[in-house]
Specification:
Layout: E1 4-10, H1 26-39, H2 41-51, E2 53-64, E3 73-83, E4 87-96, E5 101-114, H3 124-132
Antiparallel strand pairs: 1-3, 2-5, 3-4, 4-5
Length: 133
């Protein structure tokens, strides 16, 4: 479960604010994309939909150290930090590829809910997927 998954992201002009650095909220979008790669987007979404469950963000915390800028290629390094019967915790850090500088540290917690948004245990397919790495 401790394998680190790496997801590269190129920074485009549209990602930046008026000062030329990545707008802070965009890192949450990059984290979401990286988590999809960890969990396996197409197959998992189909299976979860069939079971009538999905994930919602319970908590997100980010520490900004340095901003990425237009033209940078960053790497989102994602590790499943822990799992419980109902929750997944992801450690997600952003590094600039050219110098491997840590730019943003993040931790995101997801919970599994049913169609009525009631908390439910993690589906076995998710637990298996994470165990496979």
């Amino acid at each position: 479960m401790s394998r680190t998954h790496c997801h590269p992201v190129r920074i485009y002009y549209e990602d930046t604010d008026h000062s030329g650095v990545v707008y802070h909220a965009n890192y949450l979008k990059y984290f979401e994309r990286a988590r999809e790669h960890v969990l396996g987007p197409e197959e998992l979404v189909r299976l979860l939909t069939e079971q009538g469950v999905g994930f919602v963000v319970y908590k997100a915390a980010l520490t900004y150290r340095q901003g990425a800028v237009f033209g940078d290629v960053i790497e989102i390094r994602t590790t499943v930090k822990s799992e419980s019967a109902y929750r997944l915790t992801f450690q997600q850090n952003v590094y600039r590829q050219r110098d491997d500088e840590l730019l943003v540290e993040g931790q995101v917690e997801l919970v599994c809910v049913d169609a009525d948004k009631e908390l439910v245990p993690l589906p076995e397919v998710v637990v298996r997927r994470l165990a496979e790495g």
